Amino acid sequence: MRRLFGSVRARAALGATLVVAVALLAAGAAVLLSLRGNLEGRADAEADGVARQVAARIAAGTPYAELDLPDAEDNPVQVVGEDGRVLAVSEGLEAISGTGAPGVTPVPGTEPDEDDEASPEPGELGDVVRHARGTATVEGEHGTYRFASVRATDGRDETVLVHAGASLAAQQDAVRTAAGAMLIGFPLLLAVVGSVTWLVTRRALRPVEGIRREMAEITASADLTRRVPEPGTHDEVARLARTTNETLAALETSVERQRRFVADASHELRSPIASLRTQLEVAAAHPGLLDLDGAVEDTVRLQRLAADLLLLARLDAGERPAGSSRVDLVALAREEAAGRARVTVDARAAGAEVAGSRGQLGRVLANLLDNAERHARSAVTVTVRRDGDRAAVVRVADDGNGVPEGDRERIFERFVRLDDARSRDEGGAGLGLAIARDVAVRHGGTLTAGAAPGGGALFELRLPLA
Fold first, then answer.
1. pLDDT digits 0-9 by tens, 87-106
2. What is the dihedral of CA 41, 44, 48, 54, to 10 degrees?
3. Which fold has domain 236-313?
4. Distance between CA atoms of 233 and 241, rounded to whole angstroms?
5. What are the pLDDT digits (tens) for 198-252?
6. CATH architecture of the domain covering 321-464
């Protein structure tokens, strides 16, 4: 049972069925109440007419014994005086309730004496006093009626109440018939609604099942080149499939990038480790041949490479800049340029402060200066300025050969070195610019490459002001 209702289409079918059931119950109740009220209104009108006719005869002076009352089975009539005496009833009426006077036998002495010389004067016809629901038994048959009570004054100035009823048998039959039809029709309609909802939902969710099946196969095979099927519709399922494929593509790119990173890192680490091992093995066999400076240099290079790889791993993990504070880019640029003979700083901005990690931003400037010094012929210029009240801009330009336009984005990829002929010792591992851009992005800024006015390379670091 839990597995069945764990299905979306089962829940959708059940939900639709419940909603329609509630709506049908409300509509059915409203129809029955309306039908019942309408038929009761018609019965009240019929009872009013009969009661008024009898009351009019009484007001006209007709003796109670000559009222010619209607058939008791259809319209039972009871005439009651103010003192509760029953003055007249329909023939065959055996019992009555709902009128306030249960008697069905006229009391003797209600007619004027035959010796009265004066004819009774005409009385008055009053209004309908009330409507009530009651019962009557006519010749052994028990029925339900709506009674109308009309006040009248007879020729002897005696006020009487005329109670006339209208049968509710037709109303009850109609209500029972309508209720029976609903009891038969509603379950059938609910079954149709549930079945149609089940089929429509199943058809609508069929692409989702295809996406789920394909994702399960991709997970099992670890083949990120596969894609889920995209339906030809323009609904939410199609958008889900497109988003899933975009996610798979991004995941494939990320995994491939990670694989290349691991392979390149292993390759870059192998060289200094092998060199250091060779020197140590030679020193162990021939202590007099130990190249201590070379061993130290390889160790430092290995240390720097390990530090670069660790920083990239932290950046990839989404680590936010540690020790965030206000950093003066002018002071930072002068600090990093100190001791570099070919580097000059042109500080055109006062108060160019940004928020971030001083250590990481210093690493960015150091990497840019190292790269510029490797390619410059004679000079490297660092310019710091403000771009309005929004950003601070640091430009590092050299007078070297520059970067070809087609490679200005590729140089920010990891382990990319445009000059494949230069040695690793001179060119580095190809991580400096990648680290610089990642740090800039983590600080909400950008790092781009372009052409310097002197023909060399120009790197522009743009960071939001604090």
1. 888 888 888 888 888 888 88
2. 150
3. Helix Hairpins (1.10.287)
4. 11
5. 888 888 778 888 888 888 888 888 888 888 888 877 778 888 888 988 888 888 8
6. 2-Layer Sandwich (3.30)
d(CA 96, CA 102): 6
| Torsions phi, psi for 15 (to 5 deg) | -65, -45
**Can you tell me which residue has the tokens 């292993």?**
266
Distances (CA, A) of 293 to 25, 107, 297, 300, 433: 94, 142, 6, 11, 28
Read off the pTM: 0.51
Domain ranges, ordered by start, for the chain: 1-108+121-208, 236-313, 321-464
How, if at all, do strands 343-347 and 380-387 pair?
parallel
